[in-house]
Structure formats: C-alpha cells, structure tokens
Task: inverse folding
C-alpha cells in the first residue's frame, strides 16, 4: 500500500554531512538484560528512527539522495537539516555527548544528548530503512515494557528502551504496509509516554498499543512530514512537566511554522490522548 508522504519543506534545505564520531558508549544489550528494570536519578527519552528508504518502504519516492535507508549522513530523517541527528545537534537545549555507529546489524547509529538544565538524557537510534519492521517492533516492545535495557555513559548508567520514561517512533508508518501478529501487552504496570510521528499513526498504532498501558502525547490523524522540529518542541514541554494538551500544542505550533500551514490544521493533524 502506497503512502503519500508530505515533503513540502524537503527541497529547500540541503542535507549536511556530519562525520564526527565519538565511540565511547557501552551498551548492555545482552539478551539477559532485555527484561531488567532500572531506576536512575536521570530520565531517558528514547527515539526509534526508521531511516527513509525508497527501495524498501511503501512510500512515494523522495529524491534518491535523501531516500537511501543505508546512508546516515544524507537521510531525510537523520542527516538532513530536519533529521533527528542534525536538528538536535544544533539545539540550544541539548548537549551532544556521544555517537556510536553499527550498534548491531540493523541499528546503524546511536546518538546521545543530555539536556542543558534538566535531568534528562535523549537517545536516538537510526535503523537501517530496510529493517523498518524491526524498528517498529522494538518501539512497541519498549513502549509496553517487554524490552528493557541500559547503557553506560560518562561513568553513569542510564535506562533505554522500556526503561525510558518517553518512547518515540519517527518515520514512515510501516504498519500501513505490513501486519504484526505479536501482542504488546504491558508487562510491569508502568505507564510510559509515547510520541509517534508517522502518517496516520493514531489509526495504525493504537490497536497494537491498546494493552500496552501508554500515554500518547502526540500522534497523527493524517499524512504528515515526521521531521525533528515537531518532537524537539514537544519534548521541550515534556521536560518542563507540561500536560498532554500543552505538549501537543507545542508540536502543532512547530508543524504549523515549518510546514506553512495554519495552527488549526496542525492541531487537527497532531492530536493527543486516545
């Protein structure tokens, strides 16, 4: 099934290569750790990014350079100006800490940031676009607490996956193309916050999250461009303990600004709660 991907702003901003690599992150992603709970003084936001991929995803093709799901530096959702890695590196609210490539066969890069004033870490994983299904499953399992993990950075252990307080998915809505037979029922009675930026994400993700015990902060009702400014501004509200409506309003305002649409239209597109 083909999805019409709105890319109004894509042709006005060049992709920029960012090849600075600091490999000093130790990930505790052994199988025995995937269901281990962790409570630390710092909270974590974990973003799962399925790299845009003309070849392996059911999208209307974007320009080849930004639609290569194996090219980190030029990918629409990662290395381009409004990709997660590039946008957060330029943010005045977040300090870039580490980057590590080839976490495993399907995660091509992980970047880690620390908020400049709040006790929050942000971890973003770039999944090979060919493996969008695995990215989607990992997001759903993390949201429900099925997968839990930790990583060590700067002599400190932080929680990721299901040990995160906020879990997010960014990219094409692969659930429009494939079906999942797995169940994602909550395993620990903990409610995690989620942000899902993909076309029609409320419609396609809600059946899989119905028993996951999640709090949907922002998800979509129609076609959208899942670019980084939306989640960046939503997270600004999140780390300041704003409520769902305030966080959603920040996301909608950012979308309105960058996509040149009315705030009313953006609020109809980006909604909160069930």
Result:
């Amino acid at each position: 099934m083909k999805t019409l991907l709105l890319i109004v702003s894509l042709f006005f901003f060049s992709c920029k290569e960012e090849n600075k690599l600091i490999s000093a992150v130790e990930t505790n992603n052994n199988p025995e750790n995937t269901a281990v709970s962790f409570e630390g003084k710092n909270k974590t936001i974990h973003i799962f990014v399925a790299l845009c991929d003309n070849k392996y995803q059911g999208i209307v093709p974007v320009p080849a350079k930004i639609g290569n799901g194996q090219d980190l530096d030029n990918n629409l959702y990662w290395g381009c100006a409004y990709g997660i890695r590039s946008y957060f590196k330029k943010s005045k609210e977040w300090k870039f800490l580490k980057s590590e490539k080839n976490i495993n066969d399907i995660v091509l890069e992980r970047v880690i940031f620390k908020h400049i004033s709040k006790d929050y870490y942000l971890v973003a994983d770039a999944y090979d676009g060919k493996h969008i299904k695995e990215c989607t499953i990992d997001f759903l399992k993390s949201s429900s607490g099925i997968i839990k993990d930790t990583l060590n950075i700067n002599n400190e252990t932080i929680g990721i996956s299901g040990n995160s307080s906020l879990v997010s998915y960014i990219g094409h809505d692969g659930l429009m193309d494939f079906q999942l037979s797995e169940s994602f029922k909550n395993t620990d009675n903990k409610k995690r916050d989620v942000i899902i930026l993909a076309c029609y994400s409320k419609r396609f993700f809600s059946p899989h999250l119905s028993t996951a015990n999640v709090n949907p902060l922002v998800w979509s009702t129609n076609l959208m461009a899942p670019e980084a400014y939306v989640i960046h501004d939503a997270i600004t509200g999140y780390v300041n303990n704003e409520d769902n409506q305030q966080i959603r309003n920040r996301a909608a305002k950012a979308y309105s600004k960058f996509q040149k649409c009315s705030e009313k239209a953006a609020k109809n597109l980006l909604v909160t709660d069930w």
In short: The helical segments are 84-90, 132-144, 201-209, 228-239, 244-259, 263-269.
